Amino acid sequence: MIGENIKHIVETLPAGVRLVAVSKFNPNESIMEAYNAGQRLFGESHAQELVPKAEALPKDIKWHFIGHLQTNKVKYIAPYVSCIESVDSIRLLKEIDKQAAKCGRTIDCLLQFHVAQEETKFGFSMQECCEMLASEEYKLLQHINIVGVMGMASISDDPAQIASEFTQVKNNFNALKSEFFADNPSFCEISMGMTHDYPIAISCGATLIRVGSGIFGERMYIKH
Question: How far, in whole angstroms, is CA 186 from its chain's centroid?
């Protein structure tokens, strides 16, 4: 079933859009079902869950960290992640840079924007983000690579509201690209859209979609 779900989603994706299979709370056996169907990009949101999975599962899996990340957890995931999608402060970015340097790595990062109505969602405002990218603190960082942006829409039954919020993320990407990353071809990713709204996200310019229950079914909560 998991393999069929993967194949169905991937077959419907336009060129240039990739699937992040959100494997949090799912056991290694389920991840291997997706892996055997050809999936190599997985998303986790808890350090204590990502690390043992990364150590136990095939090494060609690319792990994206997609949840809110506390600075004191960065050191645990730095050896394993290929991308941290949820960068929401210069403080976090500096810690990622520090821990990546210790591992002899450069870690790809996405800048998370707060575009939803809910107060609980994390992320930069556009002004905060521009101030950070223009700062001397940011210019000193050598072990991070900003490759794009991420955002989450409000949980809403109104497709127009969701599309409006995703469009804001896309507009923020365009503005940052022209002002800060015009000469950086690796700044090319827009991560937005989940199981319930990813078709809208794709229509608004997403290059990465994050699908969990649409692949694995309702989450199987595993104990840490």
Answer: 15
pLDDT digits (tens, 9 = 90+) for 158-169: 999 999 999 999
DSSP string covering 80-134: TEEEEEEE--HHHHHHHHHHHHHTT--EEEEEEE--SS-TT---B-HHHHHHHHT
How many whole angstroms from its chain centre is CA 109?
A: 8
Q: CA separation (Å) from 75 to 70, 78, 81, 130? A: 10, 5, 11, 26
Give CA–CA dist 154/157, Å, rounded.
9
The CA-based dihedral angle spanning residues 32, 38, 40, 41, taken in that order and rounded to the nearest 10 degrees: -100
How many residues are given for the chain? 224
Q: Give the residue among 135, 31, 18 at the shortest CA–CA distance from 85.
A: 18
93 alpha carbon, distance to own chain's centre? 15
> Does residue 96 contact residue 109 with C-beta atoms inside 8 Å?
yes
From 189, 190, 194, 197, select the one nearest 210 (Cα to Cα).
194
pLDDT of amino acid 121: 66
Q: Which amino acid makes up residue 137?
A: E
For the entire predicted model, the pTM comes to 0.95
